[in-house]
UniProtKB/TrEMBL annotation, chain A:
InterPro entries: Aminotrans_V_dom, Cys_dSase_SufS, PyrdxlP-dep_Trfase, PyrdxlP-dep_Trfase_major, PyrdxlP-dep_Trfase_small. This is cysteine desulfurase. Signal peptide: none annotated. The gene is LOC104766695. Its cofactor is pyridoxal 5'-phosphate. PANTHER family: CYSTEINE DESULFURASE, CYSTEINE DESULFURASE 1, CHLOROPLASTIC.
UniProtKB/TrEMBL annotation, chain B:
It holds the Pfam family SufE. Residues 90-209 form the Fe-S metabolism associated domain. Transmembrane segments: none annotated. Residues 232-241 have a biased composition (Polar residues). It comes from Camelina sativa (False flax). The gene is LOC104717593. InterPro entries: BolA (IPR002634), BolA-like_sf (IPR036065), Fe-S_metab-assoc_dom (IPR003808). PANTHER family: PTHR46230, SUFE-LIKE PROTEIN 1, CHLOROPLASTIC_MITOCHONDRIAL. Residues 216-249 are annotated as: Disordered. This is SufE-like protein 1, chloroplastic/mitochondrial. It comes from the Eukaryota.
């Protein structure tokens, strides 16, 4: 059955605990009555206007209680998923279940609860590995978020491998989290940062990138999908070119992993990072994917318990990856909940999600560009250019803050205004700030319509003062 | 935190908002104004960013119990607001429809006197605004604060205009007493969350900080004038006991030594030299062996200037006119002479001396 299956944490297979299973079976029964309407749903994900086939967005909405509320007197229309995604009930329940039934520290204990917690935690790691097609779950390091993962690479791999004069290639469109760590580390090592600018399609110029590559390049750190431009970089191609000159590639996949199939074997990247909270998982957990041989060669990042082998007074020996990079007690419940999020997304199917978002994203782009004086950043969608399902834009003569404030307070529409953690990009585009509406698979065509109507109203309100 | 609880308020709700989340016990030397002491439940983040103002010497202190009566909802009562601001609040309250309120707000903004671009400096910029907002403050001749402001966003400009209109022309203590509560009364659903994105809150804070700074600079200037009258009597360390504790400075009592009145050409000293002035004089005398030396403290001329504020080591002596006649300048170009002087005064330049206006001649050139 497509859609929203209630996936129980698999621990019931470990040690049947009659009471707790009974509890959850009960809740499953309760839930399934509300699901019955979906069993008749077709498996297509089309954006239907007259809903004879229910769209994906409509089908999954029931799982996201947070979306069913009023804000400032209007129905909430949440269009800020690029900042953080909403979580389906299963994920919340997984987190609750963990704390209610088997919370215990991992990797350390002998007793029953700790064994369960450890198994679930490691199972979550396997789920992440499978989700991105890593060859081994040992290639997944749990971190606090993608930002921490990038810092891990910068401070562990970077400090060891970057020498004075070495070059690190970034794009001008990178998120601050993929700029600042490299600035910090290049200060320490004497490495030089080089930036790829945009071409006339408002996409980072891959040809220029290729030209920039040289034997001095040690690392290329780029986004997969841009959180402002909605453009998608040809990672496979970039990796081939980078490897040719002996450079490693780090992919910031925060805006891609949640929305499409990401296969690290196909991409062949050396490092890849993503955050749980953008993919229906809780905050406080993210991961770094690193090729085994690379992780093996890297020194510790944070020191403490878990990442050690033996500890003496004057020195210590360290554990194998991934433990080597996971100091201290991890966010156990959160990791398990991330696993539940991955299950949820996989149940729907990433190709389906992606297909739905391409459609909806195109719809958003079209409706938005039909308004006068609206300037959308990034490439135009076409047969060959698939944009991510978000639009950063500016309206002539209207400050994005005013826009976002009015949309929120008069229409309950939640968008983002500011620089979206991409100040260099905004400077390059010649603006102080922009507004951004971003979609996820729980948004519907009606959401986009509401947004556009609200936007038109906002624009005319502010225009009345001119 | 109370503010966090009511941020993103869905509608205008009169929540039991802790009063006076802004000020701790602020005591004013001349006016003896005491604000309500900070309650333990006050928001720590507000406190951290507020300039607290403490009296060093014991003065007459009104007991905390003599605080104004609080309203039933525990808000700052509207009567405590400056009169213009009260009018504005009443106007907004009379306009029920939210859209009309916005129209009113934007209307205010459109009629805001434009801010000269030269004042759009870093010191005048409101932190934490996604839009750009600048605020400038100066004294009128009655020591009331006058504000000017600008923004690139219509709503923020409206809020700025509101604050400018409501607070301009008022004396410092009155301005400092204003808490952000009144924003609720406007019914604009302006979040009062202390988050960094709260432009309105930050604007108010900056305006209050600038008012305070103006007052402090004013105190320092007037105290240095006072000491001139008793010029041969060393003045006490704490002159009026004004101490400003800013979050990024150490507290420094502002004091004036008047030891050097008998030296040299006191005639040109309109303002008696403070410690920095003395050090400059000593250094130049020692190193350049001048035939003539005039050191004039003109910091007061730059009192409103944005760069002049409580930086570490700043004792208010920031701008000087120098006239030096010395053989040491023989054969040196003008640039070289200025270079010499600047090099000698490196330490001072690092510690708060902002600028020198130099006349450097050889005896033959005079």
């Amino acid at each position: 059955m497509e859609g929203v299956a209630m996936k129980l944490p698999s621990f019931k297979s470990l040690a049947p605990n009659a009471i707790s299973i009974g509890h959850r079976s009960f809740s499953r029964v309760r839930r399934s009555s509300s699901l019955s309407v979906f069993s008749a749903a077709s498996s297509s994900a089309t954006v239907a206007t007259n809903s004879e086939s229910v769209s994906l967005g409509h089908r999954v909405r029931k799982d996201f209680r947070i979306l069913h509320q009023e804000v400032n007197g209007s129905k909430l229309v949440y269009l800020d998923s690029a900042a953080t995604s909403q979580k389906p009930s299963v994920v919340l329940e997984a987190l609750q279940n963990y704390y209610e039934f088997y919370n215990s520290n991992v990797h350390r204990g002998i007793h029953y609860l700790s064994a369960k917690a450890t198994d679930e935690f490691e199972l979550a790691r396997k789920k992440v590995a499978r989700f991105i097609n890593a060859s081994d779950s040992k290639e997944i390091v749990f971190t606090r978020n993608a930002t921490e993962a990038i810092n891990l690479v910068a401070y562990s791999w970077g400090l060891l491998n970057l020498k004075p004069g070495d070059e690190v290639i970034l794009t001008v469109a990178e998120h601050h989290s993929c700029i600042v760590p490299w600035q910090l580390v290049s200060e320490k090592t004497g490495a030089v940062l080089k930036y790829v600018m945009l071409n006339e399609d408002e996409v980072p110029d891959v040809d220029k990138l290729r030209e920039m590559l040289s034997p001095k390049t040690k690392l290329v750190a780029v986004h997969h999908v841009s959180n402002v431009l909605a453009s998608c970089l040809p990672i496979e191609e970039i990796v081939v070119c980078a490897h040719n000159v002996g450079a490693k590639v780090l992919v910031d996949a925060c805006q891609s992993v949640p929305h499409m199939v990401v296969d690290v074997q196909k991409l062949n990247a050396d490092f890849l990072v993503a955050s749980s909270h953008k993919m229906c998982g809780p905050t406080g957990i993210g991961f770094l994917y690193g090729r085994s041989d690379l992780l093996q060669s890297m020194p510790p990042f944070l020191g403490g318990g878990e990442m050690i082998s033996d500890v003496f007074l004057d020195h210590s020996t360290y554990a194998e990856p991934p433990s080597r990079f996971e100091a201290g007690t991890p966010a156990i419940g959160e990791a398990i909940a991330l696993g539940a999020a991955i299950d949820y997304l996989s149940e729907i199917g990433m190709p389906k999600i992606h297909e739905y978002e391409v459609e909806l994203g195109k719809y958003l782009y079209e409706k938005l560009s039909s308004l006068p004086d609206v300037r959308i950043y990034g490439p135009r969608p076409s047969e060959s250019v698939h944009r991510g399902a978000l639009c950063s834009f500016n309206v002539e003569g209207l400050h994005p803050t005013d826009l976002a404030t009015f949309l929120d307070q008069q229409h309950g529409v939640a968008i983002r205004s500011g620089h979206h953690c991409a100040q260099p990009l905004h400077r390059y585009l010649g603006v102080n700030a922009s507004a951004r509406a971003s979609l996820y698979f729980y948004n519907t065509k009606e959401d986009v319509d509401s947004f556009v109507v609200a936007l038109a109203d906002t624009v005319s309100f502010f225009n009345s003062f001119k | 935190m109370a503010a966090a609880a009511m941020s993103c308020a869905a509608s205008l709700r009169l929540l039991p908002f802790k009063p006076n989340l802004f000020a701790s016990s602020v005591q004013y030397p001349a006016k003896a104004l005491i604000l309500r002491p900070l309650k333990p439940s006050e928001l720590p983040s507000f406190r951290r960013t507020i300039i607290t103002f403490q009296k060093i010497s014991t003065g007459n202190v009104r007991p905390p119990s003599a605080s104004p009566p609080s309203s039933s909802e525990d808000f700052q009562p509207i009567e405590e607001l400056p009169p213009e601001l009260q009018e504005i609040v009443k106007l907004f309250q009379s306009v029920q429809e939210p859209r009309a309120k916005y129209r009113q707000l934007i209307f205010y903004g459109e009629h805001l006197k434009p801010l000269d671009p030269q004042f759009k400096t870093r010191e005048n910029k409101v932190e934490g605004c996604v839009s750009q907002v600048w605020v400038r403050a100066f004294f009128d001749d009655q020591r009331n604060v006058v504000y000017e402001a600008d923004s690139d966003s219509s709503i923020t400009k409206g809020l700025a205009a509101l604050l400018v209109q409501g607070l301009s022309g008022r004396p410092v203590p009155e301005i400092l007493r204003v808490t952000p509560d009144f924003a609720l009364l406007l019914g604009l659903q302006q979040s009062l969350s202390p988050s960094r994105n709260n432009g309105f809150l930050n604007m108010l804070k900056l305006m209050q900080k600038k008012a305070l700074h103006l007052e402090v600079k004013g105190e320092e200037d007037s105290s240095s004038e006072e000491s001139l009258e008793s010029s041969f009597v060393p003045t006490p360390e704490t002159n009026g006991g004004v101490s400003v504790v800013d979050k990024d400075t150490e507290s420094k009592p502002s004091f004036v030594e008047d030891l050097g009145a008998e030296d040299s050409d006191g005639g040109s000293d309109v303002v008696a030299l403070g410690s920095r002035g003395m050090r400059i004089r000593e250094k130049l005398e020692k190193e350049l062996n001048p035939v003539e030396l005039e050191v004039e403290d003109v910091s007061y001329q730059h009192a409103g200037h944005a760069a002049v504020r409580g930086s570490a080591g700043d004792d208010g002596e920031t701008h000087f006119n120098l006239r030096i006649v010395s053989d040491a300048f023989q054969g040196k170009s003008l640039v070289k002479r200025h270079r010499m002087i600047y090099d000698l005064l490196q330490e001072e330049l690092k510690n708060g001396l902002h600028a020198l206006s130099i006349v450097a001649k050889t005896p033959a050139e005079v």
